[in-house]
Amino acid sequence: MTEQPRPRVLIAAAAPDDLLPLELDRYLAAGLDLTVNLWRLTDPAAVRRDWGGRVTLTDFDGFDPAALLGAQLADGLGYDAVKTRAAVPIRAEFFAAATDPALPHPLRVVGQSGAGVNHIDGEAAARHGVRVVNTPGTTSVAVAEFALAQLLALLRGLTEHNTAAHRGAWPKTVQRPRQLSELRLGILGFGLIGRALAARATALGMPVSAHSRSLTAEDAERLGVRRAGSLPALLAEADVLSLHLPLTPASRGLLGARELAAMRPGSLLLNTARGGIVDEAALAAALRDPAHPLAGAAVDTFEYEHTAFTSPLFGLPNALLTPHVAGMTRTAMADSAVLCADRIAAVLT
């Protein structure tokens, strides 16, 4: 009997170096044939030494669509699966070429290590019969904790105090902000992350309101949150607004100048969701205006990220900016890498 070829997986964006053995062992245990991209790994020489005999190694810029397609088709065999993380763009042209039936291994599944899949052309994937799998829930605790850190840093002026202390300055007076229990947290999008944040904020004494199309009055009562019936209602009552919804055509630009102006005086905005949900130009204008009700914002996700990173928020003292790191705890990334491997293997084996 002729032995069937093993399904081939292209790991276009690997787990970080310290988690790479966990990830690769999971795929190999499932009997998959691996090609691993060295891009973004900090010690490619060590990976070559430790893994060169067990997997095929390549090196290309995963953010370059042409390079990704070139790697997919490099040896004329194709790959049954592509695994990504971060925001590696997988577009319609890629799906069209990668699913060519003349390839011995036409593409069958794309796996995203993480919840967000807005960088993957889902319509093109469906059109070409390709499954898209992801790992929702694996980063929920990490992102919820980060949102609380954003809130505390903004509320208590931690970055400003740190900078002043490093200069040897000792202020004569300090601002006296309200305590957490005196602020109402508004959560826009009440999925796994929103619920994780609500539980932690409630434990710290914060009253919580939430708005989501899927949140019922019964669920809100059971979870101890107040259900806001609309976005305007949530903006009217929240002292802190935290965003936890996916980027879709419906949510793109959801918070613009009009919505920001409707927020409560002295309010704070936290965004660990997706950059395109907030109009960054409108947000920057609001933060520059001392008369605007929005007092500060903490932003972890941007319209343009990675090598294209730019934002009108640069340089604003009341904008706390971080490079999309909310979900990057060791536990979250390990769980995400393993679950992504398992979901790809479930499709291929």
Report what the structure shows.
The protein has 349 residues and is α/β, with parallel strands linked by helices. The chain has 13 helices and 13 strands. The protein has helices spanning 20-29, 44-51, 65-72, 92-98, 122-127, 140-156, 158-166, 192-203, 217-223, 231-237, 257-261, 280-288, 330-348; strands at 8-11, 33-37, 56-58, 81-84, 109-112, 131-133, 185-188, 208-211, 226-227, 240-243, 267-271, 294-299, 319-321. Strands 9-8-7-10-11-12-13 form a seven-stranded parallel β-sheet, with helices on both faces.
Low-confidence stretches: none
| Share of β-strand residues | 5-15%
Structural class: alpha/beta
So what's the oligomer here?
A: single chain
Distance between the termini: 19 Å
Shape summary: elongated
Report the major sheet.
7 strands, parallel
CATH topology (level 3) name of the largest domain: Rossmann fold
Percent of residues in helices: 25-40%
Task: Figure out the total of helices.
Answer: 13
- The CATH architecture of the largest domain is 3-Layer(aba) Sandwich
Strand order of the largest sheet: 9-8-7-10-11-12-13
Radius of gyration: 23 Å
Number of strands: 13
Q: If you average the pLDDT, what whole number results?
A: 96
Q: Write out the CATH superfamily name of the largest domain.
A: NAD(P)-binding Rossmann-like Domain
SSE string, helices as H and strands as E = EHEHEHEHEHEHHEHEHEHEHEHEEH
CATH class of the largest domain: Alpha Beta
Number of domains: 2
